[in-house]
């Protein structure tokens, strides 16, 4: 289970860290309150603040960090049952976690939907308008096209409910980089059997690690990259993770060259 705290090492602010979190830095958007930027009612009235934020967050500007590659390594070693992420930055896919191993519980920029005629679009179709600060318009009906990010007030994607089958099967739950403030995602932390160890890797204690720790819970407080390095070192996987990162860091350059060719 992951949240925005696994992407701060990649340069993307999280939401609630005092001072640096997104919600402390939205003054320029003239919002009634911070979360309004992700509220569907507000979006229908005024989509501009969200698209200004989307321009900063749009996939392609950031690279995965060691934490994302660790999940990819877990998968390569046949140890990953599924990764449940709240993040919309797409860095898990970029690090090589296959889409079928991912539940992007709060949606993704990879696809988009017209809010009027519900026509589906690829996230890349919107890139030019988002990057030039325009609100993407549906060529068919001129409605506003919204990336498939789950806003407050919207249903979570159907594949979120895979947890009903996944969590009873898990024999270890790793929770990293999340405040566990947002439901229903946060409740997944209590969905594993009581005999299953839960490992929290986070700057601070959150959710049930504050109000209801289990005897077999394990907590690794501090920076998530440092915490993952400690775990990987204990597993003897450091060389493999470094090799995976080196290979991964090669790939995005080629892809970026690809994008440039296409754009020009
Ligand atoms: N190392 C360790 N922990 C970190 C790091 C780091 N480098 N950076 C941030 N954290 C921790 C913070 O201390 C905090 O506990 O990660 C957590 C991030 O919490 P939030 O900012 O609340 O992000 P998240 O939990 O993903 O928010 C959940 O809220 O607004 C909605 O939809 C949005 O998906 C988001 C949801």
From TrEMBL:
EC number(s) stated in the UniProt entry for this protein: 2.3.1.286
Source taxon at top rank: Eukaryota
Entries under CDD domains matching the protein: SIRT1 (cd01408)
Domain Deacetylase sirtuin-type: 1-238
Cofactor stoichiometry and binding remark: Binds 1 zinc ion per subunit.
Catalytic residue list: 106 (proton acceptor)
Gene Ontology MF annotations: histone deacetylase activity, NAD-dependent; NAD+ binding; zinc ion binding
Record keyword 4Fe-4S present: no
Catalytic activity: N(6)-acetyl-L-lysyl-[protein] + NAD(+) + H2O = 2''-O-acetyl-ADP-D-ribose + nicotinamide + L-lysyl-[protein]
Entry cofactors: Zn(2+)
Positions of Zn(2+) binding: 114, 117, 138, 141
Similarity annotation: Belongs to the sirtuin family. Class I subfamily.
Descriptive protein name: NAD-dependent protein deacetylase
Organism for this UniProt entry: Cyprinodon variegatus
Taxon lineage: Eukaryota, Metazoa, Chordata, Craniata, Vertebrata
């Amino acid at each position: 289970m992951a949240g925005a705290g696994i992407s701060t090492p990649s340069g993307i602010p999280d939401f609630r860290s005092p001072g640096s979190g997104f919600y402390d830095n939205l003054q320029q958007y003239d919002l009634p309150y911070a979360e309004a930027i992700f509220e569907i009612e507000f979006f229908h009235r005024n989509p501009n603040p969200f698209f200004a934020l989307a321009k900063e967050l749009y996939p392609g500007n950031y690279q995965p960090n060691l934490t994302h590659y660790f999940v990819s390594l877990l998968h390569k070693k046949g140890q990953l049952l599924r990764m449940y992420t709240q993040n919309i930055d797409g860095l898990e896919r970029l690090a090589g976690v296959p889409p079928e191993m991912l539940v992007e519980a709060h949606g993704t920029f990879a696809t988009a939907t017209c809010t009027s005629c519900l026509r589906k679009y690829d996230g890349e179709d919107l890139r030019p308008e988002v990057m030039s600060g325009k609100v993407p318009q549906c060529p068919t009906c001129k409605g506003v096209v919204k990336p498939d990010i789950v806003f407050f007030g919207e249903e979570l994607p159907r594949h979120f409910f895979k947890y009903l089958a996944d969590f009873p099967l898990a024999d270890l739950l790793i929770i990293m980089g999340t405040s566990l403030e947002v439901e229903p995602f946060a409740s997944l932390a209590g969905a594993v059997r009581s005999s299953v160890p839960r490992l929290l890797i986070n700057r601070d204690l959150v959710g049930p690690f504050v109000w209801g720790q289990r005897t077999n819970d394990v907590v690794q407080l501090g920076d998530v990259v440092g915490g993952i390095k400690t775990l990987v070192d204990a597993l003897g996987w450091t060389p493999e993770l470094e090799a995976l990162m080196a290979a991964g860091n090669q790939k995005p350059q080629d892809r970026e060259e690809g994008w440039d060719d296409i754009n020009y």
